[in-house]
Amino acid sequence: MSVISVRELNLYYGKQQALHHIHLDVEPHSITALIGPSGCGKSTFLRTLNRMNDYVPHTRITGTVKVFGEDIYGPNVDVERLRKNIGMVFQQPNPFPKSIYDNIAYGPRLHGITDRVTLDEIVENSLRAAALWDEVKDVLKKPAYGLSGGQQQRLCIARALAVQPQILLMDEPTSALDPISTAKIEELLLTLKGTYTIVIVTHNMQQAARISDKTAFFLNGELVEYDATPVIFQHPNDKRTEDYITGRFG
Ligand SMILES: Nc1ncnc2c1ncn2[C@@H]1O[C@H](COP(=O)(O)OP(=O)(O)OP(=O)(O)O)[C@@H](O)[C@H]1O
């Protein structure tokens, strides 16, 4: 079964249509890369998957987005539960102005976990899963702002993992990072896909080619082509995909 199943999705910002007839399925334990030129609708599409677009006024959606078979725009959807199950990581690392420990414990506390031993365990497991534990285990009480950009981004990934989501959405998570931190995050994502399903927006086509199983190429709010990553990068079926990946536009 698909983890995410999108059918005939249209999204409008006021009168402007930003997504047109999107049809896409995401398989479990895979990395799906969303690529395309600036303004083509990648972030807009990503936000439809956990209803982050609810926060944008005058947004209207038609079509369906199913997550584990549930229509997430249906009438009785618990949006808080949905977002707990679908973690999100953004372009700029955005730790809270709190200690490393409290950043990770924040979500679990919000969901009612107060027991110290349980919280300690969640903090350690999340930091280990985000490949950050060894670097921070002796400074858990120090402010998260003291970490490097790359460490902060792994902290944000650990924070997302702490509430045990099944899906991770990432909006250009490495574009503010240096090549070494980027490589670490890419390696981490390849490990995480064993447990989670990942959808990532990236402007870095080498990154999409290196880490993703499937790639979706967007242009002007349309999903032009969606296929196995080697097909998209080596034998695309659409001339527009080929022009984009060979650098002829965008
Ligand atoms: N909050 C908003 N209100 C109105 N229009 C918006 C809003 N957010 C995005 N748009 C418009 O929707 C279209 C798609 O934008 P979106 O940010 O999804 O593209 P993108 O492919 O993620 O771009 P980038 O790679 O530059 O982040 C653009 O025309 C943009 O101007």
TrEMBL record:
GO MF annotation list: ATP binding; ATP hydrolysis activity; phosphate transmembrane transporter activity
Membrane topology: Peripheral membrane protein
GO biological process, one term: phosphate ion transmembrane transport
Species, as recorded: Brevibacillus aydinogluensis
Name of the protein in its database record: Phosphate ABC transporter ATP-binding protein PstB
Alphabetized UniProt keyword annotations: ATP-binding, Cell membrane, Membrane, Nucleotide-binding, Phosphate transport, Translocase, Transport
Keyword Transmembrane: no
Localization, UniProt: Cell inner membrane
Keyword Magnesium: no
GO CC field: plasma membrane
Recorded superkingdom: Bacteria
Function noted in UniProt: Part of the ABC transporter complex PstSACB involved in phosphate import. Responsible for energy coupling to the transport system.
ABC transporter domain sequence ranges: 4-245
InterPro entries cross-referenced by the UniProt entry: AAA+_ATPase (IPR003593), ABC_transporter-like_ATP-bd (IPR003439), ABC_transporter-like_CS (IPR017871), P-loop_NTPase (IPR027417), PstB-like (IPR005670)
